[in-house]
Amino acid sequence: MDHQGLLQILLYVAVIVAITPLLGGYMARVFTGERVGLSPLLGPVERAVYRLCGVRPDQEQHWTAYALSVLAFSLVGVVMLYALLRTQQWLPLNPAGMPAMAPDLAFNTAVSFVTNTNWQAYAGESTLGPLAQMAGLSLQNFMSAAAGIAVAVALVRGFTRRSTRTLGNFYVDVTRATLYLLLPLCVAGALLLVWQGVPQTLNAQTAATTVEGASQTIALGPVASQMMIKHLGTNGGGFFGQNAAHPFEGPTPLANLIHMVAIFAIGAALTNMFGRMAGDVRQGWALLAAMALLFLAGLAVALWAESQGNPALAALGLGQPVNLEGKEVRFGIAASTLFAVITTAASCGAVNAMHDSLMPLAGMVPLVNMMLGEIIVGGVGAGLYGILLYVVLAVFIAGLMVGRTPEYLGKKIEAREVTLAVLAILALAFGILGLGALATVLPAGTASVQDGGPHGLSEILYAYTSAAANNGSAFAGFSANTAYQNVMLGIGMLAGRFLVILPVLAIAGSLAAKKAVPASAGTFPTHGGLFVGLLAGIILVVGGLTFFPTLALGPIAEHLLLGAGVRF
Predict the structure, then answer these.
(1) Maximum Cα interatomic distance, the chain, rounded to a whole number of Å
(2) Which of 72, 89, 427, 475 has its CA 20 to 30 A from that of 173?
(3) pLDDT tens per residue across span 78-91
(4) 3-state DSSP call for residue 448?
């Protein structure tokens, strides 16, 4: 990697660190009901939404009611989006006359966008009209992101409240996340992208003459608005099939930087919000430090692997070229690899290069990012509640080592919380290993695999990891648009979302009902380097014990065989 690539990475990290306390402080005020700068403008809109929906903002919910609200809200979203995709040929704002989606693909797409996965087994510009893109996909980009943030806020209240049975009101949290956070940031971000050359129009296409004199039809649409929310909400669903690699989605290096900053912005800031709401900002910085440690380690491995190039080309006497296959030259090795690690660390799934073309160990890094759960910044909301599940395990193990009842933020961590945390973590393993195993043995599953040998296994593994981790990126050689894959991947997305959310809310309810335990000389400090190292270590141990055998048969075996000259 050259000095320019290193400068890009340092600039990116500096921007994220700079905006984290600013955005985190703002979110803490929003979700504690304090007045913010946008309150005079948006306060009347917020109250009108409550009146229209019949919501009483002062009426808080028990964790069971909060969970039922999450499920009902998501179910309505799936049904509405499915209906829109199945009937778009009869609806307005469809200038290209796009037909209805097939039932299995519509199911997969509806589940995908409602669970914040945004897995796309289709090319958006040739499948969906502007109405489906805006009223369907973009709407769910907002709603799924807001729902994830709301669950994270509920869990924070569980840690910070004392002897209460309620966690807030889900509909109030979703409304505030949308009005005060997502909409203002997306309006500003979309204008920046339009300035950089990203289209924002209701025209379906335009004609252009190539340098050879041929005529070419280029798809257009409301691209900029969807690009901003797909990155800011860690959704990942692109307007075009090539996603952020398409020149209309990522036309300039600055637009690419805006995309990457947006992916991490809210997830990183939520850790700071957590620290502020807990009354100790150091707690938030400790969580972010553990995330950063895992992120930078993965980035280093991926950059090293991509810089080595393909040994098969070196064997032809071509030297040791870097791996530019599947990348946009205008981004190069550093920006493409950085984007790949960011998008899988944050459970976004947007891509500006083809992950199927990464070198085996570089391709393993996105896999590992997703297999660890949504914990390295993670999806908006999901990243915070994902890493707090591991915090529960970390303080429990620390308590066992010193012979004390484990505590975190003054709350005793007991058998109920540990059991629920383990159940949530196992949901990811079920989606990846359980459903992925079926895809490796059933003919309907193996029919989607393009390549033989370890890389073919990696294609299957990546698909089901991406679905269960609610990421949405893919190894492009995997043919996902079949009835079998659409249904099974949809099941994986549902499991990865709701079989985690339900235990999280149960933990929040259990903790909120507990009294605070005063800190003592024997209390394990959870804001220093020792805790950061313990937390990161436990995440790696749990992930390694669960997934290392499959990684050994996939990308690790491919790396070793490639170096030995074995081809498939």
Answers:
(1) 79
(2) 427
(3) 999 999 999 999 98
(4) coil
Instruction: Give the separation between CA 233 and CA 150, rounded to whole angstroms.
Output: 13
| Higher pLDDT pick, 185 / 523 | 185
Q: What is the distance between the alpha carbons of residues 393 and 389, in angstroms, rounded to a whole number?
A: 7
pLDDT category at 141 given cuts 50, 70, 90 is very high
pLDDT at 1 over 70: no
The tally of CA atoms less than 13 A away on the side-chain side of residue 503 is 25
- Encoding tokens for residue 409? 């933020």
DSSP line for 364-428: HHHHHHHHT-TTSS-STTHHHHHHHHHHHHHHHHHHHHHTS--EETTEE--HHHHHHHHHHHHHH
Handedness of CA 73, 200, 125, 456 (dihedral sign): negative
Q: What is the pTM of this model?
A: 0.94
Cα–Cα distance, 231 to 216 (Å, whole number)? 29
Amino acid at 377: V
pLDDT at 320: 58
pLDDT of residue 274: 97
d(CA 249, CA 193): 9
- d(C-alpha 335, C-alpha 206), whole Å: 30
Conformation bin of residue 291: beta by default, left when phi > 0, alpha when psi is -120 to 50: alpha
Instruction: Say which DSSP state 215 is in.
Output: E
Q: What is the 3-class SS of 134-183, one letter each residue?
A: HHHHHHHHHHHHHHHHHHHHHHHHHHHCCCCCECCCHHHHHHHHHHHHHH
Taking the alpha carbons of 556, 558, 559, 564 in that order, is the dihedral positive or negative?
positive
Q: Give the C-alpha distances (Å, rounded to integers) separating 483 from 113, 186, 479, 547.
A: 18, 35, 11, 27
| Whole-angstrom distance, CA of residue 172 vs CA of residue 165 | 17
pLDDT at 318: 62
**523 within 8 A of 80, measured Cβ to Cβ:** no
pLDDT tens-digit map of 167-204: 999 999 999 999 999 999 999 999 999 999 998 887 77
Residues counted in the chain: 568
pLDDT of 534 over the 80 cut: yes
Nearest alpha carbon to residue 245 among 130, 355, 135: 355
Q: Under DSSP, is residue 327 helix (H, G, I), strand (E, B) or coil?
A: strand
